[in-house]
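Example 3.
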Amino acid sequence: MTKKVLKFGGTSVGSIERILHAANLIKKEHSKGNEIIVVVSAMSGNTNELIKKSKSISEKFIKRELDLLLSTGEQISTALITGALNELGVKAKSWMSWQIPILTEGEHTNARIINMSVKKINKYLSEGGVAIIPGFQGLSSVGDITTIGRGGSDATAVAIAKIFNTDSCEIYTDVDGVYSSDPNKIPVAKKIPKISYDEMLELSSVGAKVMQSSAVQTAMMYEIPLQVKSTFTNREGTEIFNQENIDYSKAVTGVAYSKDDAKITLIGVQDKPGVAADIFEPLDKNQINVDMVIQNISPDGKTTDITFTIKRNDLKKTIETLNLNKKIKFKNLNHNDKVSKISVVGAGMVTTPGVTFKMFRALADENINILAISTSEIKISVIIDETKTLEAIKKLHSIFKLN
Amino acid sequence: MTKKVLKFGGTSVGSIERILHAANLIKKEHSKGNEIIVVVSAMSGNTNELIKKSKSISEKFIKRELDLLLSTGEQISTALITGALNELGVKAKSWMSWQIPILTEGEHTNARIINMSVKKINKYLSEGGVAIIPGFQGLSSVGDITTIGRGGSDATAVAIAKIFNTDSCEIYTDVDGVYSSDPNKIPVAKKIPKISYDEMLELSSVGAKVMQSSAVQTAMMYEIPLQVKSTFTNREGTEIFNQENIDYSKAVTGVAYSKDDAKITLIGVQDKPGVAADIFEPLDKNQINVDMVIQNISPDGKTTDITFTIKRNDLKKTIETLNLNKKIKFKNLNHNDKVSKISVVGAGMVTTPGVTFKMFRALADENINILAISTSEIKISVIIDETKTLEAIKKLHSIFKLN
């Protein structure tokens, strides 16, 4: 007997036809003798529509009631999937988060799952029933409905896999796995059959959003194997494991990119101890997240140039903060928001020398100028001119044999 | 300190603008120092949309899950109203039926409210907060969401008025009160300032649907005074009381009508004891509701003609049942579904002689043929040719001085 969590994303339950399709898929898995817990997202578009309603009443809609409002999305899809399974002759029953209960802590709209009761549902599974649970929501310590942040249905699925100790956690979505880059925009992108949690996290945080990052982190922490599959094809998906279970024949697994960064350069900053702290402390206080930082000593040895990147949305606030900062002096402030960030990601990098060099050489061969660099154990990111994005990704696919 | 239930129907919360309007109305009542419990219906159209979704999955959608599905409608409007009140600076909090809890008994989709806890909400009211509660739903003895039938938000409002022992129960809707006939179709119809529960029931069951009948029955049973008001005008509404509190200067309060009846006549039925039972027992077994029955002895003294009315939807099934009935013999079966039922309603009738006569005379004066008659203490109903409906209602308004 295999116990499985099957999680269906918003597009997988986005219409009545798709709900029936998902129900047939669940029926098939159930008929193989598996014990099945289904986690359901809201029908695609539904949550945005509810948010729009709330915003047209108040931009600062009170969070307790916003959670109550948004939780109806998954409640609807949960009821519809359960009804569809019953129509198909499958014994199935819904369980709202307050009925289980799924206990959460933390603020409304941003809660975390801390525990849930398994007894009633395990009994139902052992009697041959399929349990359907809404993703994204839980119950607070004072008995109110909470939600766990956008994309939180992944987190619910992983938490259930952990707490119910299931054999697998299958994430059904509208893509058929994790790709070396965004397959909708980068035609050379290729599906990755197996990937480590770390690589998945690096790829998802910089562009290829297949799963919510915090859910992958939780899966990594508790070593819960994940499978990302398409609801709409029978093709093999992507398995997400621990690094040690993966054979790294390639140094690089994928190339991610994002176009929401901006670059700022402070020219002629007075070079003295503590200047970096003086620059970045006020940014931190203003909740501006600084990504890459590069500092060069200037030719005269007295001043320095500091380049760093931030989210594009924060550009205006960053410039204001820098100009108001009395502690620092600089000659000039340059900024550029026509940049993109390209990252090569691969757990195999650690044991393969020369990846950094190869990447820089490849970009140089294409006449692509690198504006900033940052590296981690399994990722090298560079900032380049936005217009060169596709060219760079293609070249990197070719040089690292991802095609 | 006055404690009030304010109930808002689907059209009163049918859009964001209307939700804000209702919230302002609640704020005004609250600012007068009243303790306010608000009961909310689903936004108009929402419940039908959810039912449509369920039907496109299954015509026999499993009822437990249907209740879960439909209950999202009031959950949404409750959250939006509560958010709007907070935006207006009013302390307000929602309470789902499972949080109170509102306990129900009976089947899914057709449950009855049996009790609810008042302590937490009374404490909140005494602290100056407005409590917002979804109508139409409750919790079963096994902890599942139940619903209490279409229009059930009225029943929730009346149950809350009873259990919280409020001073009044105000039903905000899209009409500004109870009319002597349907004001949308009968231009001569006039608003009734005060009406008894019985009259209200007779008027609502035959056409002028302002409130759900079972909610009026509950209000009558516990003598809870009701007020029906328009959300959209400041005009006086209709107060619904006990009969003894109403001054009956008029014999007739209103004229209701319905066009969903059909008439059947069995000609030449063998006249012997038990023939009526033989005719109507099989109809009852087939859940066909018979309304009026008229029986005349035929000239030859051996056979009789029997006329009765049924719901128009049941016509086909009724004819089939009669033709299959081996126990009875008749020469001919006539049927007519181009009829309407006109009812004059008035608690003052009991003490005013001649209402029946006056009604028949008035119709005769207009050359309107009466096809069937039925009377009760506060109602006289006749079946007439459908094309004469408006003419009859106008004449009865004039003769009973309702204009």
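The first strand of chain A starts at residue 3 and ends at 8. The mean pLDDT of chain A is 91.
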